[in-house]
């Protein structure tokens, strides 16, 4: 029976989280909002509108949301030529693909941003499909993105593992009744990932690759 390995990409496979923090911090500053970087960091992994909700509150003036998001996108876009995948990230995906796992990226990135991330990752040959935030009504921590990703490859939840770096990733996997592995490469503490539902936590893609034999990939569900 088929098996699916689902991966977040920002902060999980490509080293982008702190670049997003800087871009959002500056976007908020330009919009007249003083938001501390540590708060931005902990909100990463949420879709844009939910991230702004988390940081500015649901009672804010929503008419400026599009301008804030556009400012973030413009600022973050200046980093595209310099994005770098984490060490052995591509090798991790290829190793799993060679072992007959279907590899699906689950991301809120789209268009130019997704193109830049895929270029940095340089592992298109290992990918089966990509699921983006545009495909569902509600992003992580809702389970919808993961369930949609599984529908693309026809794999049930008990034959899948999701790898991510944020508490939102782990909560989405838990709500989707799916095994999950958390990575510390995004900067979120081990205890937070575990509390959010991670079955195991690894330093980064290289550490997960080195310890695949003791990871959720040896015991999906």
Automatic annotation (TrEMBL):
- What InterPro entries does the entry give? HAD-like_hydrolase_sf, HAD-like_sf, HAD-SF_hydro_IA, HAD_sf, PGP-like_dom2
Q: Could you tell me the keywords of this UniProt record? A: Hydrolase
Q: Write out the transmembrane intervals.
A: none
Q: Which SUPFAM superfamilies match?
A: HAD-like (SSF56784)
Q: Which GO terms describe its biological process?
A: DNA repair
Instruction: Give GO terms: molecular function aspect only.
Output: phosphoglycolate phosphatase activity
GO CC terms: cytosol
Any coiled-coil ranges, and where? none
Name used for this protein in its record: HAD superfamily hydrolase (TIGR01549 family)
Q: What is the lineage of its organism?
A: Bacteria, Bacillati, Actinomycetota, Actinomycetes, Kitasatosporales
């Amino acid at each position: 029976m088929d098996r699916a390995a689902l991966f977040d990409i920002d902060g999980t496979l490509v080293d982008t989280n702190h670049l997003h923090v800087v871009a959002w911090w500056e976007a908020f500053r330009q919009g007249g909002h003083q938001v501390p970087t540590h708060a931005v960091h902990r909100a990463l992994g949420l879709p844009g509108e939910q991230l702004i909700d988390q940081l500015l509150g649901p009672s804010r003036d929503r008419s400026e949301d599009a301008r804030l998001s556009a400012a973030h996108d413009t600022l973050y876009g200046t980093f595209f030529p310099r994005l770098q995948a984490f060490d052995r990230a591509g090798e991790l995906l290829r190793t799993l693909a060679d072992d007959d796992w279907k590899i699906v990226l689950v991301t809120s990135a789209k268009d130019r941003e997704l193109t830049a991330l895929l270029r940095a990752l340089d592992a298109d040959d290992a990918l089966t499909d990509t699921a983006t935030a545009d495909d569902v009504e509600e992003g992580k921590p809702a389970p919808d993105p993961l369930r949609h990703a599984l529908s693309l490859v026809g794999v049930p939840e008990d034959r899948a593992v999701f790898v991510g770096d944020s508490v939102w990733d782990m909560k989405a996997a838990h709500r989707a009744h799916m095994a999950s592995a958390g990575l510390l490469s995004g900067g979120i503490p081990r205890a937070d990932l575990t509390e959010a539902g991670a079955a195991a936590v690894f330093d980064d893609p290289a550490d997960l690759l080195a310890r695949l034999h003791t990871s959720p990939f040896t015991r999906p569900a």
